[in-house]
């Protein structure tokens, strides 16, 4: 592979022992805002079932007119080279999908782990995805799993045996338990420019970076390659931090999420100073301020309704979902301002339902309420903000609001030029959308 030895590491960076955080990644040179720190091809990846037909299973290219796998008629490819390239992985599922029919239902994690096992079988040397960290070095945190997580692991192992036994000689259950633990803590989801879920993958070198709520890099994807770009000025000696979570929420919520999924508590500047918490928890201006107990009660309600909605998404109808959003906003709105992150969370969900139902006016009016507070709550360069400008801009254009559309798309481009890089096809695509209008 282009003459680079995997053991050469990643130019301008080094793996080091980060005080209190275990291993981490440190800069050895200056990285300006918008510059590429490194790229990492996926060690293993899988396209999500919902995106079949829209993206090539092998290279993740999004285009019309992909060709179907003649055997299972479920996988789609750019052309024969992609189909050939994907076969070592696709053969794990091709026959099984046909023979199980509707009963073929392994989770995405199971599908990814099957591919990792297959890759491990044929890989003898350190890969280009593991220049600084080997997949086998991932933490599994098995000692920290609660009953629910342990049960989920066992269910996944059973599904792996059930759906993939034809092609894989499985290691013992303890080894599989460790592997599922490693993938759960170190796996990535690949998203498109509007943050729609495209698939799951492991990028060992990307997983080396520790978390901060004020990250100095952002990870984006070009096909199945992860790219890491600086979003703050990085000096030699600085630790390079990525964010593992959605940064919209107040400090306590972020840390609950980090403990739940990654088993640590964050001590970054944002978590120590809590400088954004007050704005994120903004209350409605009322003649008499609510009692602290009332506010606490409403926060508990908000967290519950967020969880309720997350579960309801799997079985309720769009109009039922919209009702949950509207009722909860009405209730929270008695105390919370419209810029409060819990209000914004429900507005964002409502916007998603409107988009799904092709209610463009509804989606636009939610987007308009969300975008300004989003720009305040999120860091300067944020994929959440960029994708909201993008969705809003495209909605405006669809509704023939040309000048507003151009303005929103230009805001998205400004962020994406830093986060994705000026030459990323997402950026050039949006630029073309704008050019075509002028
Ligand atoms: Zn392809
Ligand atoms: Zn097939
Ligand atoms: Zn933090």
UniProtKB/TrEMBL annotation:
One of its GO terms (biological process) is methylation. Transmembrane segments: none annotated. The keyword Nucleus applies. TPR repeats lie at residues 386-419. InterPro entries: H3K4_H4K5_MeTrfase (IPR050869), SET_dom (IPR001214), SET_dom_sf (IPR046341), TPR-like_helical_dom_sf (IPR011990), TPR_rpt (IPR019734), Znf_MYND (IPR002893). Protein-lysine N-methyltransferase that methylates both histones and non-histone proteins, including p53/TP53 and RB1. Specifically trimethylates histone H3 'Lys-4' (H3K4me3) in vivo. The activity requires interaction with HSP90alpha. Shows even higher methyltransferase activity on p53/TP53. Monomethylates 'Lys-370' of p53/TP53, leading to decreased DNA-binding activity and subsequent transcriptional regulation activity of p53/TP53. Monomethylates RB1 at 'Lys-860'. PANTHER family: HISTONE-LYSINE N-METHYLTRANSFERASE SMYD (PTHR12197), N-LYSINE METHYLTRANSFERASE SMYD2 (PTHR12197:SF193). This is [histone H3]-lysine(4) N-trimethyltransferase. It comes from Umbra pygmaea.
